[in-house]
Amino acid sequence: MDKNEILVTTTEHIPGHEYEIIGEVFGLTTQSKNVVKNIGAGFKNVVGGEIKAYTELLTEARDIAISRLRQNAVDMGADAVVMMRFDSDSIRADMETVAAYGTAVKFK
Description:
Blueprint: E1 7-8, E2 19-32, H1 35-47, H2 52-75, E3 80-92, E4 95-107
Parallel strand pairs: 1-3
Antiparallel strand pairs: 2-4, 3-4
Family: Belongs to the UPF0145 family.
Pfam families: YbjQ_1
Organism: Companilactobacillus bobalius DSM 19674
């Protein structure tokens, strides 16, 4: 199965499907912006408002984390991932770690 075919849901139950639990799956990434964007973000921090460079960083990190979660599910032979959640943390002012995690399941 291709990783893009893996159903990922934040719900505990998938309507119309019975399944067995395979196990925990996750996708993890740590991202950083370049020095120029960090300087721009520093200036924006002074005047206030959305810091688009960091919004882009988190969006990119989220997409990578989900892609890796899906690949982890494929590697385990799963058909779907239920109860998917995100967790994120700052390692430094310019680095963010994003984890996507959930439960891999196989349809009966």
